[in-house]
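Reading a protein record of the kind used here takes only a little practice. An example makes this concrete, so a full record is given next.
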Amino acid sequence: MFAGGTVIIPTDTVYGIACDPLRSEAIARIYALKGRAAAKPLSLHVASVEEALEYVEEDRRAVTAIRRLMPGPVTLIVRRPSFIDEHMTSGLPTMGLRVPDHAVCAEILERCGPLAATSANLSGEPAFAGGTGSGPLPPADLLIDDGPTPLGIESTVVDLTAGVPRLLREGAISKTMLERLLGAVEVPSPR
């Protein structure tokens, strides 16, 4: 995409800064532009539930979670397939998987294919949701402006790689809502 460039795209939660997940130099640019710590992985954004299911075919719990929660404001942590660049996941054996519920974002993902992405903000600044009160944007090669995002807060992050789903970040979907859809959800104690 864009010969290894970066693009800021709208999602259902906040704007994201994205690149081709197969270009490690583009992934490195996102880290540099944001001032993001190397230990914090990016997520893979895909266009549809059907596409997301292709990444977790062997994981029954992930299949169920995708069908119940996506598309929507959630990032699911799943096992990283071997063909996904480890630079995108900071070398971790897991990856974040997301299907935003946003028409413009879905069209971009449909046309470009999966994108490695994270929130479009400078590290330590508020996430950019468009409109007033949003933090500053990192410089990117392209900005697709669709006005304020529908939700304006970051996605909920759920780790599905442990025995019980673990709520790593409560965002647009609450723990109570997750428990209704997935059953028991653990909240790890802060370190």
Observations:
- The chain has one domain: 2-155.
